[in-house]
């Protein structure tokens, strides 16, 4: 092929990819990629990139190939998930990604790989044919490495190894209560995948209306923010059931190349607390329990029945009525209702049931056939359709159980597992102050709205408080009961400080993975009461809210 034609192809490939990366990493509309590409191509042709005067060809390999590849990975993650969470990447690699439903993501990954090969080939051709590129790309290689958020995040986590104080969060950890409850209520927890409370904004119409209706009968919590290491399903469930962020085992894990055998074994979570009270516990989820360690977590924390796609799919009347992740929500709720009926009829003490649905899963959701009959045809793209479906099915399920008398003496908690990842209304969502859904109702829960600056870590003690436990200092894990007047960690220190401390933390990480990691580093006995105050606000939890 003529060198001028190759030059144009190389400039077009780089220009289009540069434009696309700009639109992914900013809020610019998709069509601006063509403007960026046109400017790049025009500049390249004017300056004769790849065809300079007195051109001298050299067969070299550009320094920038690796930095460009790393940026390609970052753009792919940002394009797929919106916010790149390194903790999620590390945890899923170690806990396992078998039986996932992201077939579309795999296709996208292959497409990204092919495109990146094209970019690397274009840069290599330009560098070999243009001495100006050979000189400049070395400088740009350094710039690309220094500016990549992926490497910046890795550097921050590595810095925790040599931090002066790696136990800031661990010192604030409170073990959950152990006293015996009198006449404890049953418990139903419904995790609604990615269905954050931000969808209640009028900008999104009435897609959240059914959850608003549920909230009128109990306590609605506003301001449940998302701190680092709580922004994916397994992390959201651990935050709300254990009161701690999910810090991946990472380098403290004994067998680096083997899957985890336990998930968060070093802390007592909701299942451990309730099992000690004689609860019969069940987890039912539409997706596989083999994905991301869900089965390991629930079985390891004393749930009696743990069932996911592989267990529930044989129970379907129509085995073909599944999506790439697993069961549709209408099927899941039918099976969950059967499980509650079984537990209620056996009368072997209080029961606790946790369900995790799929309808709101990014990027487009998985609305059930029941929703198609209710809402009309789904266009396959609009996440608001799926959000409305998820909320309607959750409300219908609860009303069905109530009509059968299955929720008598039962505390019901409806919540989102985490904020949504990149969806069709991503730009609108990220322009708002986002928070998670949290609704509780049952006997003794007065209808009210509670606005607090909190995180999903505070859900754990709030739930224990609602069940009737007496909490030491109104706290459990790293959270504070939102029914109390005690301040949360975020109210005291701010979420930026908490996230920064999390990046420097090592002691809490060892606590989480105690039993499958090297022995925890014990604090020195010489100064058990001393504490380095890095900020004026570095006082654990003694400050009450001033009314």
UniProtKB/TrEMBL annotation:
<feature type="transmembrane region" description="Helical">
    <location>
        <begin position="139"/>
        <end position="155"/>
    </location>
</feature>
<protein>
    <submittedName>
        <fullName>Sulfatase-like hydrolase/transferase</fullName>
    </submittedName>
</protein>
<feature type="domain" description="Sulfatase N-terminal">
    <location>
        <begin position="185"/>
        <end position="468"/>
    </location>
</feature>
<dbReference type="Pfam" id="PF00884">
    <property type="entry name" value="Sulfatase"/>
</dbReference>
<keyword id="KW-0472">Membrane</keyword>
<keyword id="KW-1003">Cell membrane</keyword>
<dbReference type="InterPro" id="IPR000917">
    <property type="entry name" value="Sulfatase_N"/>
</dbReference>
<dbReference type="InterPro" id="IPR017850">
    <property type="entry name" value="Alkaline_phosphatase_core_sf"/>
</dbReference>
<feature type="transmembrane region" description="Helical">
    <location>
        <begin position="5"/>
        <end position="22"/>
    </location>
</feature>
<feature type="transmembrane region" description="Helical">
    <location>
        <begin position="68"/>
        <end position="94"/>
    </location>
</feature>
<feature type="transmembrane region" description="Helical">
    <location>
        <begin position="28"/>
        <end position="47"/>
    </location>
</feature>
<keyword id="KW-1133">Transmembrane helix</keyword>
<keyword id="KW-0812">Transmembrane</keyword>
<feature type="transmembrane region" description="Helical">
    <location>
        <begin position="106"/>
        <end position="127"/>
    </location>
</feature>
<dbReference type="InterPro" id="IPR050448">
    <property type="entry name" value="OpgB/LTA_synthase_biosynth"/>
</dbReference>
């Amino acid at each position: 092929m003529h060198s001028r034609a190759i030059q144009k192809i190389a400039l077009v490939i780089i220009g289009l990819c540069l434009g696309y990366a700009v639109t992914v990493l900013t809020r610019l509309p998709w069509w601006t990629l063509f403007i960026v590409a046109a400017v790049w191509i025009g500049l390249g042709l004017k300056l004769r990139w790849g065809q300079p005067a007195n051109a001298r060809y050299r067969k070299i390999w550009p320094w920038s190939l690796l930095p460009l590849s790393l940026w390609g990975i970052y753009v792919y993650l940002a394009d797929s998930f919106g916010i790149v969470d390194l903790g999620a990447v590390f945890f899923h690699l170690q806990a396992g990604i078998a039986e996932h439903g992201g077939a579309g993501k795999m296709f996208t990954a292959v497409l990204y790989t092919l495109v990146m090969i094209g970019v690397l080939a274009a840069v290599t051709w330009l560098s070999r044919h243009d001495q100006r590129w050979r000189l400049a790309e070395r400088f740009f290689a350094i710039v690309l490495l220094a500016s990549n958020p992926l490497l910046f995040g890795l550097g921050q986590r590595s810095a925790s190894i040599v931090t002066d104080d790696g136990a800031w969060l661990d010192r604030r950890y409170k073990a959950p209560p152990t006293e015996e409850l009198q006449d404890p209520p049953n418990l139903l927890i419904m995790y609604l995948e990615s269905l954050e409370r931000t969808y209640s904004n009028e900008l999104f119409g009435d897609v959240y209306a059914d959850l608003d209706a549920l909230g009128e009968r109990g306590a609605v919590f506003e301001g449940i923010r998302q701190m680092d290491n709580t922004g994916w399903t397994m992390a959201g469930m651990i935050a709300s059931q254990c009161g701690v962020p999910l810090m991946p085992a990472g380098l403290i894990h004994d067998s680096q190349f083997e899957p985890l055998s336990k998930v968060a074994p070093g802390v007592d979570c909701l299942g451990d607390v309730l099992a000690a009270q004689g609860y019969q516990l069940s987890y039912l989820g539409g997706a596989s329990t083999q994905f991301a360690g869900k089965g390991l977590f629930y079985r390891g924390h004393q749930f009696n029945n743990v069932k996911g796609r592989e267990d529930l799919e044989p129970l379907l009347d129509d085995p073909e009525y599944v999506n790439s992740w697993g069961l549709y929500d209408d099927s899941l709720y039918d099976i969950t209702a059967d499980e509650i009926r079984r537990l209620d009829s056996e009368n072997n003490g209080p029961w606790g049931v946790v369900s995790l649905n799929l309808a709101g899963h990014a990027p487009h959701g998985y609305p059930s056939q029941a929703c198609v009959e209710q809402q009309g045809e789904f266009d396959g793209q609009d996440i608001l359709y799926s959000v409305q479906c998820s909320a309607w099915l959750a409300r219908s399920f609860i009303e069905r159980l109530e009509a059968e008398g299955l929720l008598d003496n039962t505390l019901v908690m409806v919540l989102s597992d985490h904020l949504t990842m990149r969806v069709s209304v991503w730009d609108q969502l990220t322009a708002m102050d986002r928070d998670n859904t949290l609704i509780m109702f049952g006997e003794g829960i007065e209808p009210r709205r509670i606005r607090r600056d909190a995180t999903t870590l505070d859900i754990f003690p709030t739930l224990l408080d609602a069940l009737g436990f007496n909490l030491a200092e109104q706290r459990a894990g790293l959270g504070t009961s939102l029914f109390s007047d005690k301040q949360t960690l975020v109210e005291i220190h701010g979420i930026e400080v908490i996230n920064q401390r999390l990046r420097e933390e090592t002691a809490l990480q060892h606590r989480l993975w105690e039993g499958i990691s090297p022995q925890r580093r014990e604090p020195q006995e010489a100064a058990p009461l001393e504490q380095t105050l890095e900020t004026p606000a570095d006082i654990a939890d003694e400050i009450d809210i001033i009314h």
